[in-house]
Amino acid sequence: MEFKRELLFEVMDEVGALLDMHYQELTLHKDVIKLEPQWSQYATLEQMGAFVVFTIREEGELIGYNAFFLNRHIHYGSFLCAQNDVLYLHPAHRRGTTALRFLDFCEAELKAMGAQKIGYHIKFSLDWRPILHRRGYSDEEVMVAKLI
Fold first, then answer.
1. Three-state DSSP state, 13
2. What per-residue string of b and e applies to 114-140 under the rule 16 or more CB within 10 Å gives b?
3. Is 47 a member of any domain?
4. Which residue of 33, 48, 86, 141 shows the fewest CB atoms closer than 10 Å?
């Protein structure tokens, strides 16, 4: 397995199949919410240093990704937060320690980039918080939503 940071434009052509699997597995309200990434906005944020993508490859094939928004907290300007956007690992590679090693890799890279806090959003339909809890993360907030 190879873990690395890649530029979005380098992986855009490869990410489609995984992104569709990710959408099918986790997105709620698919009848209303369609998968249509705003690639140019992601690219702009990446160029500004406000978005980063980490990948997992096996023998060169993309099998997973973990992407974050990096921003100074609007209340605490000197505090750099890494807020997870998307995290996905192909189901065939979820056994063993691959995901754990990837999480550790991403955390170390974000820390080296100056991030002081990492936040993940986790759907109740696939609640993997126990994995993060064992790695020192704690529950801080609950998000509630309503389609209108």
1. helix
2. ebeebebebeeeeeeeeeeeeeeeeee
3. yes
4. 141
Residue 40 reports pLDDT greater than 90: yes
Domain count, the chain: 1
Whole-angstrom distance, CA of residue 63 vs CA of residue 21: 11
For residue 69, being part of any structural domain is answered with yes
- Which position has the token pair 């990410």? 15
What whole-number distance in Å separates Cα of residue 71 and Cα of residue 128?
25
| Segments forming the whole domain that contains residue 65 | 2-133
> Which of the residue ranges 40-44, 51-55, 59-63, 72-76 would you say has the lowest mean pLDDT?
72-76
**Mean pLDDT on 36-53:** 96
Q: Summarize pLDDT for 73-119 with one digit per residue, the tens.
A: 889 999 999 999 999 999 999 999 999 999 999 999 999 999 999 99
Residue 79 has a CB neighbour count (10 Å cut-off) of 13
Query: Which position has the token pair 């806090």?
Result: 117
In 1-148, the DSSP E strands lie at 2-6, 51-58, 61-72, 80-89, 117-119
